[in-house]
TrEMBL record:
<dbReference type="GO" id="GO:0016491">
    <property type="term" value="F:oxidoreductase activity"/>
</dbReference>
<dbReference type="InterPro" id="IPR002347">
    <property type="entry name" value="SDR_fam"/>
</dbReference>
<keyword id="KW-0560">Oxidoreductase</keyword>
<protein>
    <submittedName>
        <fullName>SDR family NAD(P)-dependent oxidoreductase</fullName>
    </submittedName>
</protein>
<dbReference type="Pfam" id="PF00106">
    <property type="entry name" value="adh_short"/>
</dbReference>
<dbReference type="InterPro" id="IPR036291">
    <property type="entry name" value="NAD(P)-bd_dom_sf"/>
</dbReference>
């Protein structure tokens, strides 16, 4: 059985969506497929140049697509507020919290938070909160927040969330991805007017894996990740399918997580199990 594909996305005419990190990788393919099915899509991107290039590519691939660029830097809360004020005035049917950074050397956001936790979780937490009124104004709003298999190794270190005492880049990444998952579940519990779900792409070839080595100046690790992408990863388009399923499939369950069917590694999207820690009583409230 082939399973669910992008061809199964329902008609989205009249729906409005925001996709963060839509200029490349999974975010780009998510935005492209939503636009192809008739949604009006805001490409929330940090770089105006890359965002415009992505919008042009989508319009070329899907003539008549309704896409607009919105500048958003999730590592700067003033940018998050400006974006929400500009794009949160009309009903919003779908928010895809896709953008993220992975395994960076320790650095801080504009507001002084550790970059991975600040970008992957706090930036999206703020964005979602600022867009809640727009989401509530839509008839059946949905929020999809991307997590990762690294959530299984994550721990929320409330005594050192910012890694000020001890910083390990992969542990910080796992913490941020667990936070994404816990947030998706807690949002679904707290806001009954919308459906909040998590999704993860499995192992997909994007530029995410090579950003950290580039920042560290590690040509060797950059090449290692590039080789891994070439030999073992599924495409970014395939990696976007769990996000698209979570965003559009009629049988999606609030608070659930959707990822690749085959060992959560690759393949058609399906509902997947999540770390038991993510459902620990009181954890979402504390986060």
């Amino acid at each position: 059985m082939g399973g669910w594909t992008a061809g199964d996305i329902p008609d989205l005419d009249g729906r409005r969506a925001i996709v963060t990190g839509a200029n490349s990788g999974i975010g780009y393919h998510t935005a492209l497929r939503l636009a192809r099915r008739g949604a009006s899509v805001v490409l929330a991107c940090r770089s105006a140049e890359r965002g415009r290039a992505a919008a042009d590519r989508i319009k070329a691939a899907a003539p008549g697509a309704d896409v607009v660029l919105g500048l958003l830097d999730l590592a700067d809360l003033s940018s998050v507020r400006t974006f929400a004020a500009r794009h949160g005035t009309a009903p919003l049917d779908l928010l895809v919290n896709n953008a993220g950074v992975m395994a960076l050397p320790r650095r801080s956001t504009a507001d002084g938070f550790e970059m991975q936790f600040g970008t992957n979780h706090l930036g999206h937490f703020a964005l979602t909160g600022l867009l809640l009124d727009a989401l509530r104004a839509a008839p059946a709003p949905r929020v999809v927040t991307l997590t990762s298999g690294f959530a299984w190794s994550g721990r929320l270190r409330f005594d050192d969330l910012q890694g000020e005492r001890r910083y390990r880049k992969w542990a910080a990444y796992g913490q941020s991805k667990l936070a994404n998952l816990v947030f998706a579940k807690e949002l679904d519990r707290r806001v009954p007017e919308l459906t909040s779900v998590a999704a993860h792409p499995g192992y997909a070839a994007t530029n995410l894996q090579q950003t950290g080595p580039k920042l560290q100046g590690s040509t060797l690790m950059e090449r290692v990740f590039g080789l891994g992408n070439a030999l073992m990863a599924q495409s970014a388009a395939a990696g976007a399918l769990p996000s698209l399923y979570a965003a559009t499939a009629p049988d999606v369950q609030g608070g659930a997580c959707y990822g690749p069917r085959l060992l959560q590694y690759r393949g058609a999207p399906a509902k997947v199990i999540t770390p038991p820690l993510a459902d620990r009583p009181g954890l979402g409230e504390r986060l």
